[in-house]
Structure formats: C-alpha cells, structure tokens
C-alpha cells in the first residue's frame, strides 16, 4: 500500500502526465482532421516527409511534361496543316506543268496563263514557308532545327525529344521560278519532274512530323497514367485517414474527460492527511 504523503503526490503527477499525453494526441488529431494531412511537417514523419516530397516533385514534373508534350502536339499540328496546304498547291502546280507540257494543244496565251498561275502558286509556297509560326517560332523556313521538347520529369536524355522540320521554300524544294518554268512544253516537262520530286520531299517531311506527333501522344498517355499513380502513392502517404483519425479523436476526448476527473481526485488525496491531524 502506498504511503499517504503531501510533498510528492505521485498519483496526481501520473494523472497529469496522462492528461498531458492525451492533450498532445488530441491536438495532433485536430490538426490532422482540420488539414486533411497526416504529414504536415518533417517532424510528423521525417522519412515519410522526404519520400512524399520526392513523389510530389515527380508528380509535378509529370504535370508540366504533359503540358509540354501537348504544346508540342499543337506545334506539330500547326506545321502539319501548313504542309498539307503546300502539298495541295504542289499538286495544282504539277497539273499546270503537265498541261503546259502538252505542246500540241497549247498556244502562247494558254502557256502564259499557266505560267502566271504557276508563279503565283510558287509565291504562295514561299509565303507559307515564311509565315507559319507557333508563337514567334518559325516552323517551315528551315530555321527549326534540333529543337528540344522536355517530356519528362528529370534531366535525362530519355526525357527529351529532339525535333527538326526541314524548310519548304521553293528554293529548298528546287522549284523556284528562276529554276523552273511552264512557259513552253520543254521547260514544262522538266518542271513537272521537279514539282513531283518536291511533292515527295514535302510528303516525307510531313510523315516525319506525323510520326513525332504520334510519339508525343503516346508520351502524354504514359505520363498521365504515371502521374495518377504518383498522386495515389503521395495521397496514401500524406493524406489522413478520416475514419481512423475521428475514431482516435473520439477516444482521446473520452480519455481527456476521465483523465481530468481522475487528476481532480488525485489532487484531493493529500487532504486526507488533515483527518489524521484532527
């Protein structure tokens, strides 16, 4: 049986320590329930905090990489639309060249009309080459070379796609009006060959651009799945389990009430000494 003492009320001290621990637990539960987080600072779980921040950094990187890849798709679609238009123009130029090559049925007036339209279409190709832009970036004038797209969360070669789009000016396609003409049958035959070669060249450029677009679409799909998995892992580590936290909080409330009641009783124990002194 414990001694009845006044100077050191061990029962009250034990009750106080228990109430203090319960109060700390309640404060933690209230903080978790009010924030929705079980790891708010490094003090809550140092190792978990480091891991969670790494996951969050990677997830944020994936988010930006998805945006980068989607912007890349938009850039490629801009270039592809212009290339489609150039191919359409080249097909018309090819028809004009073949029409002029049919010398037996053409007079000077028809040849001159064909040449005028051929020149106008050639100028239109140059206009498209010089004005097709994504923002302020020129796409088809030959300056878009070895441009990088950051499509990952890290600074590695596998997270970068390099893109080059060849120029499609009439000079680059070897169909400048200073070099080809449809003003007579002989030159029109040579022009037809040059235009047909240009059609193949532009088609190859567009095929390469389209392949990159498909690659970027695949990258976006993969990054989206990865981002979702990272967010899930981060959530399971950082977010509070409300069912568990509310149960803990309810238990702490009961312990706090009973602890305060017992502390009050323990504090009254020394007063029993007065009865011995009566």
In short:
By secondary structure, the chain is mainly alpha-helical. It contains 6 helices and 4 strands, in the order H-H-H-E-E-E-E-H-H-H.
Folded structure, characterized:
- The chain has 278 residues and is mainly alpha-helical.
- It contains 6 helices and 4 strands; from the N terminus they run H-H-H-E-E-E-E-H-H-H.
- Strand 1 (133-134) and strand 2 form a beta hairpin.
CATH architecture of the largest domain: Up-down Bundle
> What is the topology, as strand order, of the major beta sheet?
1-2
- Average pLDDT metric: 88
Radius of gyration: 39 Å
The number of helices is 6
CATH class category label of the largest domain: Mainly Alpha
Helix content: 55-70%
Distance between the termini: 23 Å
Secondary structure: elements and pairs:
Blueprint: H1 10-35, H2 46-101, H3 108-131, E1 133-134, E2 137-138, E3 147-150, E4 160-163, H4 185-238, H5 242-268, H6 272-277
Antiparallel strand pairs: 1-2, 3-4
Summary keywords:
single chain; 278 residues; mainly alpha; f41 fragment of flagellin, N-terminal domain; two-stranded antiparallel ribbon; 6 helices; rod-shaped
